[in-house]
Every structure is written in C-alpha cells, then in structure tokens.
Design goal:
Largest sheet: 2 strands, antiparallel
Distance between the termini: 70 Å
Order of helices and strands: EEEEHHHHHEEH
Helix content: 40-55%
Number of helices: 6
Mean pLDDT: 91
Strand order of the largest sheet: 1-2
Structural class: alpha+beta
Shape: elongated
Low-confidence stretches: none
Strand content: 5-15%
Radius of gyration: 25 Å
Length: about 160
C-alpha cells in the first residue's frame, strides 16, 4: 500500500496523513494536500466574504439552532461557558465596566435620571440602555433602547456622537 502521495496543487510529495480522506478516491484520499486545501478555502472565503456572512447569519438564525443555543445555555456547561465569556469580557473592558457602574450608581442615587423612552425611536416598551460617546465622561449618556443601541454600534462602531 502506498504511504506517500504527490499533491497536484503544490507538487510536493507527502505522507497520506497530509491528505484528507475521501472514500471515492482510488487510494482513499483527495489529491490535494491539507495545506493547499486550507489555503484554497481561506482564499475562497475572503473573495466571497459577504456571501458567506449572509449564509452564516441565516444559518445561525434558523429556529432549530436558536433553540439549541437556548437549551445549551440552560445546562450546567452552558452556564459555565457564558459566565466564563462574561468574565473574559469584563477583564478586557475594565473601563467600560467601571463606567457602567458609575451610571448605575448615579441613577440609583438620583444624580442621573434615566428616561422611560429611547432618545432615538421614543419606544418605551424596550429596555433602555446608556450609550457613551466618551468613556472619559461617564455621566454623559445618551439613552437608547437595546435595538437602537445595537443598530447604532453596527453602523458606527465605538465612539462618535449618535446625534
């Protein structure tokens, strides 16, 4: 039995373990080495990134996948994973955590008033969140509903004035 094979893409002779298995090939392995295959996949994804993003988004929003994620978050492993992710975010965003605590304390103490309506869409039935244009000014807040806040960051990224 042959233990080496030549990649048709790069021309290098490699061991069969350097090729993906494929039951319909005569030797049971594809004719392109794993490295060339991975490079081709990366280049294809980069060339068609918008198409892949749309596909990934549509796929992740399928009801069966949303339910699976929700169910996983109810398990002990899911809770542990979510808490680990939250702790990692907090560790890498210490200033944002500090600013959020400042706002919470100021609202609690009556030094900052939180409106009932979003500054952008005027909805009141959504959760209202504080948006900061400058984290060096923690009590300068624009109050947005979670949907408007998410859309604003999607369109503008971090910083910059929403209005």
């Amino acid at each position: 039995m042959e233990t080496e094979k030549k990649c048709f893409k790069c021309g290098e002779v490699r061991s069969l373990s350097a090729f993906y298995k494929h039951p319909q090939m005569p030797d049971g392995h594809v004719n392109k080495c794993k490295e060339c295959n991975k490079r081709d996949v990366r280049e294809n994804r980069a060339a068609k990134i918008e198409q892949y993003r749309a596909y990934d988004s549509a796929r992740s929003n399928k009801p069966c996948r949303v339910k699976a994620r929700h169910d996983y978050l109810q398990t002990e492993a899911g809770i542990k994973s979510a808490n680990k992710a939250k702790a990692k975010w907090s560790d890498s965003n210490k200033k944002k955590v500090w600013v959020a605590n400042c706002v919470s304390n100021a609202v609690r103490d009556g030094n900052l008033s939180k409106p009932d309506n979003c500054s952008s869409c005027a909805k009141s039935e959504c959760r209202i969140e504080g948006h900061h244009n400058d984290y060096d000014r923690p009590l300068t807040v624009t109050w947005l509903c979670s949907m408007c806040h998410r859309q604003w960051h999607k369109a503008n990224g971090e910083g910059a004035n929403p209005f």
